């Protein structure tokens, strides 16, 4: 009897409670958007605030999990533990300014430390990663036709190379390439074909979002539940 | 739990030796089923999944095997028996054991006991008929029987004295003597010595079935004139003998005729006349036999009893013997011997046997159960001639058709007519298999190839960095302005709309600026956002930095401090679109929303959420997100009121405002980089189109 009751409670908590929360919350927010100047908009805003709090907690939980995983790697000297140690050190360094901001918001040390960390550490590293991406893309474009064997594949490769070259050269107003024909080609490629593709993508995303939302609201999909 | 394979006792897991028998236990922790492959615990005997047996059945222990009664080698008691050798005596011993197991009342044990008693009895005096005859066949028979009985007694255990059945007692003394085989009627079959009359199967076969004794019957002792001989009825008794018959001065013809062929020699003396038949033998002969004997009859040319020579001068065939001839009707309830064709199928009637004074024997159930049941047809079937072994010279001894079931030969089924398509595929497959295949050799990775790749990367890196660094370091190194690769561009339609929107704002208005990018995109977007923010600052609006990205607030602080704008504490809200909605809900009523992003997704969030609230949105995006912002810039959509994209847009915005700045210089370097990338792409395409990698030419 007790075991059965326990199973019932477990199923109720794991399956039905998340479903009910998601369904009613989604319905409230949807109605609030459909009737913006009504009581429902108030409920909508409150629910969104709670969702932001949950998202902040989820973000914090993710950070804690990362620290836990890398700490375990360092403690047990697993493979790649020096990189995990570096991550932990810089995570602690990054935690210091915000902690100081809580403790002493107007402390100039916090601002300086924050600037040093961001300006001289985070920002250059991010920029370096972007530069590496640019270099990798250039190298891949250089060896684009290396693995092409068939004539059709070679033609496709050349089509890609020419399109990319035209867009690159016309993205900046080069003096030597100031040609109406080239501008027309660039316009057709970017504003016509590119725009058409982007519109299609956005429409697909929008339709998928609507369908997914409806399926979640009618409990057809339960990505948040174990069942 | 682990089960011991020797004694079957259950032991706890982890124990190395069985607690019961001390047998070493397996170390395995699980058993894999041989049928389905599922893993089972050690204690399982059957698989949990498919119920197959996991542990093979253990062989019976020696004790159990010893206790099991050994199967009795039942020799066909219908077959003529031969004197047992040593191996046969062992079988006889087993029979003795069986007798003891069956109980004291076993009739066989009784026979044996009586045989033992008789064997211990002193040799009786010679029979009257033997008196005066040194080499009478009967004397020799008796002597050989005695010898064999003694030999048998020495090897067998003394049987318990039991009461002999009347019918057997009437037949005469029974000794623990193995019966003698009559042997085949043909002469090439080896004969056996010392036959004992009443234990001969072939002789018993002509007696009533109840009177047939098993092969383990001991040979009778001939201490005195055997009762069986005295009381011998024609169909039951005659002792075949293997020894050559001595002079048969007094041998009766009818007795000679039923004697074994070995006992009958070509030079055998002629059968004595009927007048020489002793009285005692005459008494036991049926009356009709005597009557027949009185009249000499022409003996048939072919004896139904093979091996029995008929003398033309022999007396008339007795009636009881005549019944043995093929013409006589065979008894229906008499056991038919295996030696088909050797003996006449007809056997004397049971009534005749009973008329002779012999009671119907009671055959035990177990003996009755092993009675071979053979059809007459099978008996009459002639089989191949046996050329070796004990059955040499006989035909149809063991019908091969009953013993050996040869597989029926049948023609192979004709293949079904194949479809044309199937035939074509089969021919194609055959042709492909006949072709010699060339296995491609794996290209060995040579060290030179790795160096080439490294050199290639180095060249591309240098070709990309060099132009950019040249433009950037031209002025510091040379002091002059770097050559311009770009000309100032005019503002586009979208950029002009943005300019006009900002121009329409009044001082004190609140503009929400969303910094939706991080440090990786900051190098480009800072240059894009700076002219716009500077314009806003110049207009005197109040800038509210917000972000849904973790590094957004830091980027915002850096940029705003760089342009000298009044900095407010950036607001951060996680949750992507939910965070955007929250920001808009708590932002009050901003006049304008400026979205700075390098990706299309955050722009979409802001456009969707802000347009739902009826707010004006403008954007500053990177060159990569320019295409993503294009659909929102559609005049009919009325979702984005203006936007600038990339360094070129920012440079044009600065040029239009007339402020000038670092953006133009950065654009010059960017243009050099773009040119380098384009040249590298075209060069790589040409190289790899003309020069193919090794192994791919042709």
Outline the structure in words.
By secondary structure, chain A is mostly helical. Chain A contains 6 helices and no strands. In chain A, helix 1 packs across helix 2, helix 2 crosses helix 3 and helix 3 runs antiparallel to helix 4. The longest helix of chain A is centred in the C-terminal third of the chain and has 38 residues. The radius of gyration of chain A is 27 Å and the shape is extended. Chain B has a 6-stranded parallel sheet with strand order 7-6-5-8-9-10, sandwiched between helices. A two-stranded antiparallel ribbon of chain B has the order 1-2. Chain B has a two-stranded antiparallel ribbon with strand order 3-4. With 698 residues, chain B is mainly alpha-helical. About 18% of the residues of chain B have low confidence. Chain B contains 25 helices and 10 strands.
The general outline of chain B is elongated
Major β-sheet annotation of chain B: 6 strands, parallel
Q: What is the β-strand count of chain A?
A: 0
Write the H/E string of chain A, N to C.
HHHHHH
Q: Assign a percent range to the helix content of chain A.
A: over 70%
How many angstroms separate the termini of chain A? 24 Å
Averaged pLDDT of chain A: 85
Largest sheet of chain A: none
């Amino acid at each position: 009897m007790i075991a059965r009751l326990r199973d019932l409670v477990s199923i109720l908590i794991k399956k039905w409670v998340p479903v009910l929360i998601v369904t009613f919350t989604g319905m409230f927010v949807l109605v609030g958007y459909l009737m913006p100047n009504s009581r429902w908009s108030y409920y909508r805003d409150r629910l969104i605030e709670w969702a932001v709090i949950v998202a902040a907690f989820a973000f914090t939980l993710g950070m804690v999990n990362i620290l836990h995983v890398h700490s375990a790697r360092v403690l047990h000297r697993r493979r790649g533990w020096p990189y995990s140690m570096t991550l932990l050190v810089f995570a602690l360094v990054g935690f210091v300014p915000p902690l100081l901001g809580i403790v002493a918001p107007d402390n100039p040390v916090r601002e300086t430390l924050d600037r040093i960390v961001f300006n001289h550490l985070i920002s250059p590293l991010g920029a370096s990663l972007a530069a590496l991406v640019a270099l990798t893309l250039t190298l891949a474009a250089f060896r684009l036709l290396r693995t092409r064997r068939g004539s059709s594949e070679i033609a496709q490769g050349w089509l890609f190379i020419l399109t990319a070259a035209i867009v690159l050269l016309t993205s900046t107003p080069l003096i030597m390439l100031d040609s109406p024909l080239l501008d027309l080609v660039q316009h057709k490629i970017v504003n016509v074909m590119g725009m058409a593709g982007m519109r299609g993508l956005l429409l697909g995303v929008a339709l998928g979002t609507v369908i997914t939302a409806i399926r979640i609201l009618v409990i057809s999909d339960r990505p948040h539940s174990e069942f | 739990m682990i089960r011991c394979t020797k004694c079957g006792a259950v032991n706890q897991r982890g124990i190395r030796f069985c607690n019961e028998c001390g047998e070493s236990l397996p170390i395995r922790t699980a058993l894999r089923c041989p049928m389905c492959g599922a893993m089972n615990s050690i204690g399982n005997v059957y698989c949990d999944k498919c119920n197959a047996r996991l542990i093979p059945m253990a062989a019976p222990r020696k004790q159990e095997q010893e206790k099991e009664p050994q199967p009795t080698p039942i020799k066909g008691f219908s077959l003529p028996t031969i004197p047992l050798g040593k191996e046969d005596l062992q079988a006889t011993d087993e029979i003795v054991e069986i007798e003891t197991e069956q109980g004291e009342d076993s009739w066989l044990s009784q026979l044996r006991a009586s045989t033992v008693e008789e064997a211990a009895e002193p040799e009786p005096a010679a029979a009257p008929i033997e008196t005066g005859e040194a080499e009478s066949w009967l004397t020799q028979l008796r002597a050989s029987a005695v010898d064999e009985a003694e030999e048998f007694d020495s090897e067998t255990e003394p049987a318990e004295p039991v009461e002999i059945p009347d019918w057997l007692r009437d037949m005469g003394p029974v000794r623990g003597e193995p019966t003698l085989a009559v042997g085949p009627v043909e002469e090439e079959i080896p004969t056996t010595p010392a036959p004992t009359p009443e234990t001969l199967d072939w002789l018993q076969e002509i007696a009533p079935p109840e009177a047939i004794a098993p092969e383990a019957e001991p040979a009778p002792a001939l201490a005195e004139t055997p009762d069986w001989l005295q009381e011998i009825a024609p169909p039951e008794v005659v002792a075949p003998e293997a020894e050559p018959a001595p002079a048969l001065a007094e041998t009766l013809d009818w007795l000679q005729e039923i004697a074994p062929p070995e006992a009958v020699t070509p030079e055998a003396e002629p059968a004595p006349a009927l007048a020489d038949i002793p009285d005692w033998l005459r008494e036991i002969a049926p009356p009709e036999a005597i009557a027949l004997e009185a009249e000499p009859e022409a003996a048939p040319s072919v004896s139904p009893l093979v091996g029995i020579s008929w003398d033309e001068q022999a007396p008339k065939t007795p009636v009881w013997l005549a019944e043995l001839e093929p013409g006589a009707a065979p008894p229906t309830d008499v056991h038919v011997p295996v030696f088909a064709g050797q003996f006449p199928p007809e056997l004397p009637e049971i009534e005749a046997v009973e008329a002779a004074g012999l009671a119907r024997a009671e055959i035990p159930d177990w003996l009755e159960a092993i009675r071979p049941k053979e059809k007459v047809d099978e008996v009459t079937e002639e089989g191949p001639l046996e050329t070796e072994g004990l059955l040499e010279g006989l035909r149809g001894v063991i019908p091969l058709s009953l013993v050996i079931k040869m597989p029926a030969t049948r023609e192979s089924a004709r293949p079904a007519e194949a479809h044309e398509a199937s035939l074509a595929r089969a021919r194609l497959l055959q042709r492909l298999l006949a072709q010699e295949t060339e296995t491609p050799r794996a290209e060995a990775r040579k060290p030179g190839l790795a160096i080439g790749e490294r050199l290639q990367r180095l060249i591309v890196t240098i070709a990309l960095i060099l132009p950019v660094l040249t433009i950037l370091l031209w002025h510091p190194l040379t002091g002059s302005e770097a050559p311009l690769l770009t000309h100032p561009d005019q503002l586009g339609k979208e950029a002009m709309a943005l300019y006009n929107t900002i121009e329409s704002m009044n001082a004190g208005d609140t503009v929400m600026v969303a910094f939706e990018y991080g440090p990786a995109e900051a190098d480009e977007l800072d240059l894009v956002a700076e002219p716009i923010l500077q314009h806003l600052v110049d207009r005197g609006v109040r800038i509210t930095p917000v972000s849904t990205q973790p590094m957004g607030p830091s980027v915002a602080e850096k940029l705003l401090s760089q342009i000298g704008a009044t900095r407010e504490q950036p607001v951060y809200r996680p949750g992507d679109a939910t965070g955007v909605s929250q920001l808009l809900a708590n932002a009050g009523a901003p006049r304008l929303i400026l979205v700075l992003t390098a990706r299309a997704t955050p722009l979409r969030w802001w456009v969707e959420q802000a347009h739902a609230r009826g707010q004006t949105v403008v954007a500053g995006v990177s060159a990569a997100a320019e295409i993503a912002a294009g659909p929102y810039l559609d005049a009919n959509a009325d979702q984005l009121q203006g936007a600038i994209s990339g360094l070129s847009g920012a440079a044009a915005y600065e040029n239009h405002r007339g402020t000038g700045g670092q953006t133009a210089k950065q654009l010059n370097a960017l243009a050099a980089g773009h040119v380098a990338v384009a040249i590298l792409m075209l060069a790589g395409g040409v190289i790899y189109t003309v020069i193919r990698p090794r192994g791919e030419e042709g």
